[in-house]
Amino acid sequence: MKSQRTIRIATEQDLPRILQLIEYGRQKMRMMGNIEQWSDGNPKRELLVEDISRGDSYVVEEGGVAVATFAFIEGPDITYDNIYGGKWVDDMRPYYVVHRMASMPGVHGIFNDVLDYCFKHTDNIRIDTHRQNHLMRHALEKYGFDYCGIIYLLDGAERLAYQKTTITPYI
């Protein structure tokens, strides 16, 4: 039987573990053939520290051990201002963004746990991912996210953008 998972806001003391979880995520992507996302040391330590200081960084604990991490950030996100080859499901209401999700090897169900938690705090979430991140793309579609189009990060990197809202968007 799986032990109960809890999700909490990360603290500075969690940073070493978050860095380790991000590295696990990077390794998982490489094993799945995604060699470009999170390359060159991204996400940078400084960004993870900013997430923590803003209260946007979270850890998922199981049996008192952090088994996953993610950032849950209130929009707007400047990289979502322009979308190409499609449109947002809802571009009128406020939204949150989930970034930098990573977990320990062999831990299952984290994606659903994280999204279930996030949807308790908002009804409108956007997520982007690398074209090569087939695992994330599949998980997003399985959870009910709609593919919306392409966005570009501040460094010009392309990302596939998804959105899910749990209420009917404005018409």
Structural description of this entry:
The protein has 171 residues and is an alpha+beta fold. Helix content is 27%, strand content 29%. The protein has a seven-stranded mixed sheet with strand order 1-2-3-4-5-7-6. Strand 6 (146-152) and strand 7 (158-165) form a beta hairpin. The radius of gyration is 15 Å and the shape is globular.
Helical proportion, percent range: 25-40%
Tally the helices: what do you get?
4
Over the alpha carbons, how many angstroms does the gyration radius reach?
A: 15 Å
Oligomer: single chain
Low-pLDDT windows of residues: none
What is the helix/strand order? Answer: EHHEEEHEHEE
In angstroms, what separates the terminal alpha carbons? 45 Å
Sheet having the most strands: 7 strands, mixed
Number of E-state strands: 7
**Average predicted local confidence, pLDDT:** 92
Residue fraction in strands: 25-35%
Shape: globular
Helical/strand content category: alpha+beta
The strands making up the biggest β-sheet line up spatially as 1-2-3-4-5-7-6
